[in-house]
Design a protein that fits this description.
- This protein is an alpha/beta fold and 256 residues long.
- It is built from 11 helices and 7 strands.
- It has helices at residues 30-38, 63-77, 89-100, 120-133, 135-146, 149-154, 156-167, 171-182, 210-220, 236-239, 241-252, and strands at 5-8, 15-19, 42-46, 82-87, 105-111, 197-202, 225-229.
- Helix 3 (89-100) links the parallel strand 4 and strand 5 (105-111).
- The structure holds the ligand O=C(O)CC1=CCC(=O)O1.
- Ligand LWBT4IAB binds at residues 21-23, 88-89, 142, 145, 181, 207, 234.
Length: 256
């Protein structure tokens, strides 16, 4: 599927693809664009299937579908090889790419994500809630996982914007990606990832805490390094943007 994308930064810069969480759109990466483009990278961010301005698929999708969308995006842009930074569902997509499309991925950053998350019935129930209770109810719960209480209290306007982002996501698009998460399990294939990999976990992330999620990825991907960011819940790239940007830039710019 052809995804909605925005490319910013120098046209001849190394390409960094940014891929986000279920219930988000490409604006969740706003805090990363300035620092990355200023450092000379060409930043490509996109809306996953059924999110933002990317069409809703007519059937539940799989992680392979989401990874295939990134390959199509790279082909469309004429990009042979890119760095990939993914958070949550975006990180799952990044792991799939590292496993199945190693020639297309340079350096990999896997942020607040998991090699297997919950079980299929849990995600089918989330999809059912999206369809029957509506996306505002999904957004009410998401915002609690995405940000700490302290951050929401200090940034009520921004919290409202992120709530709106999820509430505006089509229920069928959200449900399609619930299926992709519920049906994915990449744990046994992680040792196949050859890309230099940075794993970022957030200390206060209730959805994909370091233990059992980021730690598992870092243990299984050869040579991977884990960084745990304090003072952030699931959307650590927003809540601790400066820290995450420093880690990402350090990893992408590391001496080869
Ligand atoms: O449930 C959430 O909102 C957290 C999450 C799990 C996978 C993902 O993309 O976001």
């Amino acid at each position: 599927m052809r995804v909605n994308q925005v490319a910013e930064g120098p046209a001849d810069g190394e390409v960094v693809v940014l891929s986000g969480s279920i219930g988000s759109n490409l604006s969740m990466w706003d805090p990363q664009v300035g620092p990355l483009t200023s450092a000379g990278y060409r930043v490509v961010r996109y809306d996953p299937r059924g999110h933002g301005r990317t069409p809703v698929p007519d059937a539940p999708c799989t992680l392979a579908d989401l990874g295939g969308d990134v390959v199509e995006l790279l082909d469309t842009l004429g990009v042979e090889r890119a760095h990939f930074v993914g958070l949550s569902l975006g990180g799952m997509t990044g792991m799939w790419l590292g496993i199945h499309e190693p020639d297309r991925i340079d350096r990999l950053v896997l942020c607040c994500t998991s090699p297997r998350l919950g079980d299929p019935p849990m995600w089918e129930e989330r999809a059912r809630q999206a369809r029957t209770q509506g996306m505002a109810a999904i957004a009410d719960a998401s915002i609690q996982r995405w940000f700490t209480d302290e951050w929401r209290a200090r940034h009520p306007e921004l919290a409202r914007e992120y709530h709106h982002m999820t509430a505006a996501t089509p229920a069928e698009g959200y449900a399609a990606c619930c299926h992709a998460i519920g049906s994915m399990d990449v744990l046994d294939d992680l040792p196949k990832i050859a890309a230099p990999t940075l794993v970022i976990s957030a200390a206060d992330d209730p959805a994909t805490p370091p233990a059992g999620h980021g730690e598992r990825i870092a243990e299984a991907v050869p040579g991977a390094r884990l960084e745990v960011v304090p003072g952030a819940a699931h959307l650590a790239n927003v809540e601790q943007a400066a820290h995450v940007n420093e880690l990402v830039l350090g990893h992408l710019g590391a001496v080869r």
